[in-house]
Automatic annotation (TrEMBL):
Transmembrane segments: none annotated. Residues 1-26 form the signal peptide. This is Alpha-glucoside transport system substrate-binding protein. The keyword Ubl conjugation does not apply. The keyword Signal applies. Keywords: Signal, Transport. InterPro entries: Bact_solute-bd_prot1 (IPR050490), SBP (IPR006059). Belongs to the bacterial solute-binding protein 1 family. It comes from the Bacteria.
Amino acid sequence: MFSYFQRPLSAASWCKKIVLSLTALGAIALPLTSCSKPSAPEADTAISQPTGSNTVTILGVIVGDQQARLEEALIPFEEETGIDVIYEGTDAFTTLLPVRVDSGDSPDIAMFPQPGLMRSLAEEGVLVPATEAVSRADLQAYYPESWIDLSTVNGEVYGVWYRAAVKSLVWYNPENFAKQGYEIPTTWDELTALSDQIVADGGTPWCIGMESGNASGWPGTDWVEDILLQTAGPDFYDKWVQHEVPFNAPQVQEAFRYFGEIVKQPEYVYGGTTGALSIPWGDSIAGLFTPEPECYMQKQGNFITGFFPENVALGEDVDFFTTPSINPDYDGALLVAGDIFSMLNDTPEARQLMAYLATPTPHEIWAEQGGFLSANRQVDLNVYPDEISRKQAGLLTTAEIVQFDGSDAMPGAVGTGTFWSGMMDFVAGASAEDVTDKIEYYWPEEFEESAAERSAN
């Protein structure tokens, strides 16, 4: 998928004193641990006074207004410890970080936009296990095991999750559903029956937009990945992402065909296949809000809320349901995305910051103003500014089956190359077999060697 986090970030509820004003921060004398939740861990996450350089550096992908919001979330840590956090944002993160590592100029902490590069650097011995700063028991108190698994490489936990996205969502307009007497489907068969009923009633079930400039096609990868997770399960999904099974495996082709049963039926999609290929992905949600609905459903991650019309009331004019179940063995499986902090330099300051990042404090500071979700289950759901965000955060913190967006973790030539273009070819008329065979044929050889090594281990 295309990693897209664009919404205003957040100001804060760590201690209520902090959120009153930024200027009040300097007056806070309480230790950070005094404002943590009663059920939060205490032993390894307490913030101690700094030693050494009194600085810690972070390299990440967040820039602009969002960088300012992230830095705001770090203010309580700086005020309490006296440690200066120096954050550097770049849109060339995946290129720059390996160069910095190779030149001996690693940041103390990296904020990875997906776990693929994190996994690679952990396997190379570049990263320091997160458990050097936060015990596994404490991490388990903060995060569901499903999220800890996503940050585990060869039995070691290497990261602390921060900003998260949930992608297994289908959006709809409750008023439009109520007028027609439509009910929320809970299985794929019910979803298909609902789509048929909408067509029979003279409507169009779906709005789909796959146009995204040089990234066109990525919304289709999310459909296929979500369906594959629902049909083949998390173990097969993970092997597919790591190329321990071929890209063109029968289970993957089946997932393509499930998607094709929707996107390739002209009466199912607003504008037909031409519309799906040409409508910008952010514009495709608008069909839910037209006076006469152009469509009744749209599948997209939580970040689509940034493209809602200004007058749309979350939870009233729009709501969501999760991707309906296909295989009951994998009910409730979620496709997710997110940012994860990992430590490269084992310094006292870096350890203290990693411990702070695991606590609810920096999550709640960002979450309170909206446009931010966290998988940290110690975060108070009441800090989220709307019911939609609260429901989404609840999903992230309770799901037992969670898998990261596959294309983000694949080599760039595939995940942001042949997979994206292959989805456009598929919607334009190519078969699942032809598309997946082509992607498999052009899979990079160097990644093939890494997959073989992982399988051997």
